[in-house]
Amino acid sequence: MWVGRAALAAAVSNAGGLGMVTALTQPDPDALRREIKSCQELTDKPFGVNLTILPSIDPPPYAAYRQAIIDSGVRIVETAGSEPREHVEHFKSHGIKVIHKCTAVRHALSAERMGVDAVSIDGFECAGHPGEEDIPGLIMIPAAADKLSIPMLASGGFGDGRGLAAALVLGAEGINMGTRFCATVEAPLHQNFKQHMVDSDERSTDIIFRTYRNSARVSRNAISQEVLSIEGQGRPFADVAHLVKGARGLEGLISGNTDHGIWTAGQVMGLIHDIPTVAELMARIVADAEAIFTRRISGMLS
Ligand SMILES: Cc1cc2nc3c(=O)[nH]c(=O)nc-3n(C[C@H](O)[C@H](O)[C@H](O)COP(=O)(O)O)c2cc1C
Q1: Rg, C-alpha atoms of the chain
Q2: What is the signed CA dihedral for 288, 290, 295, 297, rounded to 10 degrees?
Q3: If you write DSSP's letter for every residue of 193-208 in order, what string do you get?
Q4: Most-buried pick from 83, 107, 139, 227 (CB within 10 A)?
Q5: pLDDT (tens digit, 9 = 90+) per residue, 195-248?
Q6: Membrane-spanning regions, if any (predicted)?
Q7: C-beta of 227 in contact with ligand 1 (< 6 A)
Q8: Using one digit for the tens of pLDDT, what is the confidence trace for 83-134?
Q9: Strand stretches in the chain, DSSP E
Q10: Backbone angles phi, psi at 96, to 5 degrees
Q11: Contacts of 180 (CB under 8 A, 6+ apart)
Q12: Residue 207 pairs with which residues in a beta bridge?
């Protein structure tokens, strides 16, 4: 949300990854059509669109967003959130490949039965919504690998070559990264946020909304602490709504005030020490993972 725009998605795809435009960052389906067109002008490589299905203060017109994605010729969609069936079936009926992102092995299996082409599984480390069961990737990824037949991406806490190597060893086909891509030259957010991620460590996040059973991992700041204090008093969501609304978060991202609203970030901030271009970051991750396999692992074997 807010960061998955054409420029960043195209940079990821041009560097050999699968960039994602996030549908709901755009205010309406026509704006999404324009954003997809911009991305198509910036890259001739495949990219995807994320459609997030989450409880929200005002539910968006999902069917119209889906139609914008289909009409624009996008070939890959990442769905995220609960009850994806209607969305998955619509996309699949148009031959679109669907990656469903989830936070539990049983949800991954249910998505597999639904006919998705791949899953992406977020461990507890992740930015955004980790679910309510607090299972870290070190357990979740191999547990899912034991049961799934379709390809799986490991998500949550990945930001360097060690993470990529670990994900492959645990049984994933690749990694999904959110927070790490936010601290790149191309990420469309104020420099203060990128620097804040460099200056933060692995303890710099809060889990808010736990008492509403809609946990969200965000960067710890004055607002996340205020939300936790209100939740700690057993008060309802209505009492925090003004603090957490998306428009407020966006104002902060634009003005550069990291304490203005809540903003999503994961524990992987503890592994972020610079602000490279996307191409530099991805080349480094792949090279470091290869070095681990060719030197460290092969050294162990000999
Ligand atoms: C700023 C930001 C916004 C995000 N917005 C969404 C979103 O709208 N929909 C979604 O499915 N995931 C969203 N995520 C979660 C990522 O897609 C991904 O699952 C997560 O970042 C992986 O964990 P990591 O940050 O440790 O890499 C967001 C993540 C970040 C950092």
Answers
A1: 19
A2: 110
A3: HHHHHHH--TT-EEEE
A4: 227
A5: 999 999 999 999 999 999 999 999 999 999 999 999 999 999 999 999 999 889
A6: none
A7: no
A8: 899 999 999 999 999 999 999 999 999 999 999 999 999 999 999 999 999 9
A9: 20-22, 48-53, 76-81, 97-102, 118-122, 152-155, 174-176, 205-208, 216-219
A10: -85, 135
A11: 158, 159, 160, 268, 271, 272, 281
A12: 217
Q: Which amino acid is at 64?
A: A
Closest C-alpha residue for ligand 1 atom 14:
128
Q: How far apart are CA 165 and CA 283, in angstroms?
A: 14
- Ligand 1 within 6 A of CB of 197: no
From-to residues of CATH 3.20.20.70 in the chain = 6-185
Beta-strand runs (E) in 68-110: 76-81, 97-102
- Residue 128 Cβ inside 6 Å of ligand 1? The answer reads yes
DSSP helix/strand/coil, 175: strand
Q: In angstroms, rounded to a whole number, what is the distance separating the alpha carbons of residues 174 and 134? A: 22
Mutate to test the pocket of ligand 1, among 22, 56, 197 (most ligand atoms within 8 A of CB): 22
Task: For residue 81, give the ligand 1 atom closest to its CA.
Answer: 11
- Looking at domain 6-185, its CATH class is alpha beta
Is 187:194 a contact under the CB 8 Å cutoff? Answer: yes
- Beta-carbon count within 10 A of 135 CB: 19
- Element (DSSP H or E) covering residue 111: helix 105-114
**Is 125's C-beta closer than 6 angstroms to any atom of ligand 1?**
yes
Using a 6 Å cutoff on CB, does residue 26 contact ligand 1? no
Whether ligand 1 lies within 6 angstroms of the CB of 117 is answered as: no
For a mutational test of ligand 1's pocket, the pick from 155, 214, 215, 272, i.e. the residue with the most ligand atoms closer than 8 A to its C-beta, is 155
